[in-house]
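Workshop exercise sheet. Pairs work together: one partner reads the sequence aloud, the other fills in the structure field after running the prediction. Swap roles for the next sheet.
Pair: D.N. / O.F.
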Amino acid sequence: GANVILTIDSSGSMFAKDVPPTRLAAAQEAVRRFLDKLPDRYRVGVVTFSSEAQVVAPLTRDRQVVRDAINYLYPGRGTAIGDALARSVELARGGTVPETGAEVPAQEAPLNDDPEGPFTGILMLSDGAQTAGILQPFEGAQRAKSAGIPVYTVVLGTPDGTVTFDRYGASRTIP
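Structure field:
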């Protein structure tokens, strides 16, 4: 079937308020609207990332599972873009069937090599540059390219956006 992997930045900077009410809340609302319009034939999975990338919703046609995963995102440290892309490719190529928990074998051939066949794409929402992780963004993008999976990016934020962290009695503002 057709697949969309939502890859969402949940680093601390996503709580900047230059995109009201916060960048993350704006991204969550955009994803909800996207899900409302996405045809039922698409399975959707969610990968979230800060210092590491993790699957928070397996590939499923159950939109409520995806909505629940989106609603419960929380801030982390760092932005591991390359690792998030690689994890998204892994989710697209294999994973589990949510209804049964059965493993789906990884596919070795590119996913989008048949123009008439099912489509798989990664939709990445992020506000920043890589600050954590093992793979660089280009390396993660190369994995997607090798798998035949296009990556569509949505950049969140404004040039003057900042986020302030209050920890241990000290305040730190980061652009």
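Discussion prompt: The first strand starts at residue 2 and ends at 9. What would you look at next?
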